[in-house]
């Protein structure tokens, strides 16, 4: 998944705005505090081209208003994005080169309604946290070989401003994470106020964990849903990142197809699961006695025997 994109793109950005750590990022409503240099790309054509060709399949649809924020040499310490005026509702994608210990993307927990359609990090962060978001889309972490794994958490919650930020065709559930793709281990995937996955079978999400994570936990809020999602390790070539196509094909055949490479996690904690494709085994599967009592399954749940025992 490694790409020279982050090392070469700055030479192409004739409309970028630079910000030293601890200063406002021009063209955005955010501040950056942390290692390295933050660069905001505001030209919509450039942003669309970069995100369409970004790692792990990029974005099929790039919102027109998206600003791409790139950070180079973000090594060690904490990398923090925060609103300049207490709250922000901008649409921001992030591409980060380096390994900060923690990456904090905050649009204002009390009143923020930020949208993050895409985030990529070329490194091995310990933790990635989101606050004040109405939508968190696709998170890609190139952390192969990391012994610990990454902790990804969304603590965004419902506010009056997130209500106003609702958009047609977008699943509204602050705290929800659409997709997570790692090349290495996952330590924990957590939503404090939502769940995981997409809005429909036409827009499914994915939890693709590239290395066996027998200690890895996926934990949704008790009121959150794990729905319209493919859980796996990766896809076999040639369509390595066509997770939506693989999801729909598995549903149509009612089986986890060979192109879905099986993953390994410790547990999937949720009270509502499905529709879903479970292409992973779990160290702590859900006891069959809990189905219909503590855990509700919404069919189809393809690969249910991988999840429930």
In short:
This protein is mostly beta strands. Helices cover 11% and strands 38% of the residues.
Number of strands: 25
The side-by-side strand order for the widest beta sheet comes to 1-4-5-7-9-11-13-15-17-22-25
Helix content: 10-25%
Mean pLDDT: 90
Explain what the structure shows.
The structure is a single chain. With 309 residues, the protein is mainly β. Helices cover 11% and strands 38% of the residues. Strands 1-4-5-7-9-11-13-15-17-22-25 form an eleven-stranded mixed sheet. The radius of gyration is 18 Å and the shape is globular.
Give a quick set of tags describing it.
single chain; 309 residues; mainly beta; ten-stranded mixed beta sheet; 5 helices; 25 strands; 11% helix
Q: How are the secondary structure elements laid out?
A:
Elements: H1 5-8, E1 16-19, E2 23-24, E3 30-33, E4 37-41, H2 44-52, E5 67-72, E6 78-83, E7 92-97, E8 102-106, E9 114-122, E10 127-131, E11 133-141, E12 150-154, H3 160-164, E13 177-182, E14 186-191, E15 205-209, E16 213-219, E17 229-232, E18 234-235, H4 243-253, E19 260-261, E20 263-269, E21 272-273, E22 276-278, E23 280-282, E24 296-297, E25 301-302, H5 304-307
Parallel strand pairs: 5-7, 6-8, 7-9, 8-10, 9-11, 10-12, 11-13, 12-14, 13-15, 14-16, 15-17, 16-20, 17-22, 20-23, 21-24, 22-25
Antiparallel strand pairs: 1-4, 2-3, 3-6, 4-5, 18-19
